């Protein structure tokens, strides 16, 4: 009985990062930031690997943390087929929002919301490699 209870309370095993995200690089719409997705523990994260001088300057106004090397997509877990949920860090604002990513071919649609689905913004990223 205890084993059954523990099995029910244990978190469901996470699936591996989908091939369309694992070790891929994506660029934002202005091609001013490139992010690589890779596993971070049991989750999936996206780290800035390149940024334009303007993006670096904009981020510096909101945070003392260097933009390149910052995880802006954090702790994403599968929510349903093709949809991952986690947190999105916006360096310009030094703020983290709840987020969702969906991959459609060579497009990654990221959506972040302030709270309870309010104050949301979407952005479509393109696959670099």
UniProtKB/TrEMBL annotation:
<feature type="domain" description="DUF2147">
    <location>
        <begin position="25"/>
        <end position="127"/>
    </location>
</feature>
<keyword id="KW-0732">Signal</keyword>
<feature type="signal peptide">
    <location>
        <begin position="1"/>
        <end position="16"/>
    </location>
</feature>
<dbReference type="Pfam" id="PF09917">
    <property type="entry name" value="DUF2147"/>
</dbReference>
<protein>
    <submittedName>
        <fullName>Uncharacterized protein (DUF2147 family)</fullName>
    </submittedName>
</protein>
<dbReference type="InterPro" id="IPR019223">
    <property type="entry name" value="DUF2147"/>
</dbReference>
């Amino acid at each position: 009985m205890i084993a059954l209870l523990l099995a029910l309370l244990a978190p469901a095993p996470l699936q591996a990062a989908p091939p369309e995200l694992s070790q891929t690089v994506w660029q934002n719409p202005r091609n001013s930031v490139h992010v690589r997705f890779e596993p971070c523990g049991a989750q999936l994260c996206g780290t800035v690997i390149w940024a334009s001088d303007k993006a670096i300057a904009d981020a510096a106004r909101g945070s003392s943390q260097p933009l390149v090397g910052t995880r802006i997509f954090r702790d994403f877990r599968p929510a349903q087929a093709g949809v991952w949920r986690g947190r999105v860090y916006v360096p310009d604002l030094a703020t983290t929002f709840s987020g969702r990513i969906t991959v459609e071919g060579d497009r990654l649609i990221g959506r972040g919301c302030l709270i309870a689905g309010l104050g949301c913004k979407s952005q479509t990223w393109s696959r670099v490699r």
